[in-house]
Amino acid sequence: MTVESVTGTYALAAWPWLASRGSGQTGAGQLRNLADGGLIDVPGQPNELLSCSPAWCRVLVVSSAAGMARIDLMRPDGTDRRQVASGSVHAAVADVAVLDRFEVLTVSSAADTNQQLVLYDITKKQVVTIADGVGIVLCRAGLLSWSTGDQEARIWHALDLHTLR
Questions:
Q1: 60 within 8 A of 48, measured Cβ to Cβ
Q2: How far is residue 109 from each of residues 10, 21, 151, 159, measured CA to CA in Å?
Q3: Which phi and psi (to 5°) does residue 98 adopt?
Q4: Residues 44-97 pLDDT 10s
Q5: Residue 144 — φ and ψ, nearest 5°?
Q6: Contact (Cβ atoms closer than 8 angstroms) between residue 26 and residue 45
Q7: 63: DSSP letter
Q8: Phi then psi for 163, rounded to 5 degrees?
Q9: Which of 74, 118, 155, 160 has a Cα at 20 to 30 A from 138?
Q10: Number of H helices, E strands in the chain
Q11: Contact of 60 with 68, CB cutoff 8 Å
């Protein structure tokens, strides 16, 4: 076993890639390949928070009112940038572009505490509603899970994203 030290603040994105993490810092980021030492500088503006996988970066564009203005997706080199959502929309899971195809989001309304679970399909460039009244949202290895109901009557649901065409 070998141990390699890396200067900076990084998190594992997908083996062998590390993505820079700035604990809420805005601006540019970096992807580092542990296998071959490759580096990709990810462009970002001072009002943008970046989270990246090797294939896609989620860009949270912060407005001057210190709130989130919109969510964009782009390739780590800055190309293929597209607006995914705006308003009361939030990234529902830490993973960026699950299966390199789906951005998992929640939409909340100030009028109620219910959330709507939606997927942005990168391939089709469209948003699809998955469920209303959502509580907890989880996703691992392409299996999307969410709860509905309250603490006394919580119901869990699952969707294998591999099955979507």
A1: yes
A2: 33, 29, 20, 24
A3: -55, 130
A4: 999 999 999 999 999 999 887 767 789 999 999 999 999 999 988 999 999 999
A5: -90, 125
A6: yes
A7: P
A8: -85, -10
A9: 74
A10: 0, 14
A11: yes
